[in-house]
Amino acid sequence: MRKLTKEDLVRLLDHRIFHQISRLADAMGIECYVIGGYVRDLFLGRPSKDIDIVVVGSGIRLAQALAGMLGRGAHLSVFSNFGTAQVKYHGLEVEFVGARKESYSHDSRKPVVEDGTLEDDQNRRDFTINALAVCLNQPRFGELVDPFDGLLDMEDRLIRTPLDPDVTFSDDPLRMMRCVRFATQLNFFIDEETFEALARNKERIRIISKERVADELNKIMMTPTPSKGFVELERCGLLPLIFPELAALQGVEKVNGRAHKDNFYHTLEVLDNVCAQSDNLWLRWAALLHDIGKPRTKRFDPSLGWTFHNHNFIGAKMVPDIFRKMKLPMNEKMKYVQKLVGLHMRPIAIADDEVTDSAVRRLLFEAGDDIEDLMTLCEADITSRNAQRKRKFLDNFKLVRKKLVDLEERDRIRNFQPPVSGEEIMAVFGLSPCREVGTLKSAIKDAILDGVVPNEHDAAYAFMLERAAGMGLRPVEGKG
Ligand code: ATP
Ligand code: MG
After folding, report:
1. Nearest CA among 128, 129, 102, 97 for reference residue 113
2. Is 55 in the same domain as 148?
3. What is the model's pLDDT at position 256?
4. Burial of 3 (C-beta count, 10 Å sphere; 0-12/13-18/19+)
5. How confident is the model at residue 399, as a pLDDT?
6. Can you tell me the distance from the alpha carbon of 336 to that of 334, in angstroms, rounded to the nearest whole number?
7. What is the pLDDT of residue 89?
8. Which residues of the chain have pLDDT under 50?
9. Whose CA is nearest to atom 17 of ligand 1?
10. pTM
11. How much is the CA Rg of the chain, to the nearest whole Å?
12. Is residue 145 located within the same domain as residue 204?
């Protein structure tokens, strides 16, 4: 954290817009402050574009005055039922709100709102580090108002609620997700009392919409080490409520002295490994879900030990249900995650054995353009503590990657379409759609993927005639 004096804050609030707001507020005779995340991030040296302004009086009137003063280039939106307004200006988003006092009823996170003082407004904030305010009026410009020792918490790297955490969390249970999210994003600790209140109030999360929970989860997913957030969610008991399939991965079972690994912690390790390689949110989701089918496929076999046969297949089948339930997008992102979960064992199976051209061609055929991401996921999945075994896999992966490049150049398998189409097969043999057409088509595909026939029309056509003859099919007059 940076130690900032009033002079530093004056210097940091150098954007013209702060001085324009200041002059207008003085002229209108109203108190106003920049508050919340923007102030926190000044101290943390994090860049931010969203500015929140709290006004003791009407936020809307000040926003209107500012938009009028800025003229062209400023865009004003007024939300009169919320008593807020927003001014967008050259990439900045400035939110104006009147200082307010909130009171909550048990069954909703929508409070009853009345006008209040700056202190009332700071009381309704979620965490001490999010309650810092800096005055913008002229004589006090740059003066920090920090009633809950947010600065000290920032120094100690603590997430703590300004009021009794049971009240803060019960009033608006979304704050529980925000608590874990901020701890993960900022790499802060959750204060002990605050943490205990998370555990006590976890059931309240049920009144929060799935979309809001998913937004917070995605923010956790986009941090450099999301494992931290999931460990906290598990520790406080929120995880089974918001994501039971992931919570089910947790735990170790032992039979005849043989234990399997804890798939929850393994998954988190894979997730962090992927995050070190890629910012792609959906590749990160694929990492989080890659073993999601394990609990349903777990068996103990006296000779083999613990097995999870087909967990990739069962996992892929679970993906659409999970996305639907969690209100994640049901579009090509979901399909991509599903595909990677389904294929995540393939490169490992290849690398565990001899790396043949045929196996690599098939892999390339099925993964298509997602092959790079699949390889990233699979390399991240090697969390073995046995250095020799890990080395062997990683070396074999290098070989797989090299072959992928060689074969791609030679055979153009990615996005491969068999060179003889179903229509052509039907025309040659005078068939209407039937099983024989499908059999011939997949025989051609397999022959090409196995390297028996080159990926070219004439060679594939000759192969088809030969195979068809074996099935008793003859070309119609003038074909073949
Ligand atoms: P970021 O924008 O990086 O997510 P932020 O702290 O700016 O972080 P916002 O959601 O933009 O978060 O909210 C701005 C401020 O509004 C917060 O700093 C906090 O003071 C307050 N706030 C937002 N949501 C809540 C909430 N659910 N309960 C209490 N205060 C909140
Ligand atoms: Mg913000």
Report:
1. 102
2. yes
3. 85
4. exposed
5. 86
6. 5
7. 94
8. none
9. 36
10. 0.90
11. 30
12. no
In a domain, 345, yes or no: no
Find the domain containing 142 and state its range. 6-156
Q: What is the CATH number of the domain that holds 81?
A: 3.30.460.10
What's the pLDDT score for residue 155? 96
CA-CA distance, 355 to 357, in Å (whole number)? 7
Please report which helix (H) or strand (E) contains residue 174, including its range.
Answer: helix 174-186
Cα-to-centroid distance, 38 and ligand 2 (Å): 7
**Quick check: is 324 in a domain?**
no
In terms of Cβ atoms closer than 10 Å to its own Cβ (0-12, 13-18, 19+), residue 52 is buried
184 C-alpha vs ligand 2 centroid, how far in Å? 16
Residue with the two structure tokens 């690398």? 351
- Relative to the CA of 124, which ligand 1 atom is closest? 29
Q: CA-CA distances (angstroms) from residue 186 to 180, 372, 375?
A: 10, 30, 30
Q: Are residues 112 and 170 in the same domain?
A: no
296-352 confidence digits (pLDDT tens): 999 999 888 889 999 999 999 999 999 999 999 999 999 999 999 999 998 888 877
466: Cα separation from own chain's centroid: 51
Q: How many angstroms does the Cα of residue 307 sit away from the middle of ligand 2?
A: 46
Question: How many domains are contained in the chain?
Answer: 3
Pocket, ligand 1, Cβ cutoff 6 A: 36-37, 50, 52, 125-126, 130, 172, 174-175
CA separation for the pair 359, 380 (Å, rounded): 21
State residue 303's pLDDT score: 87
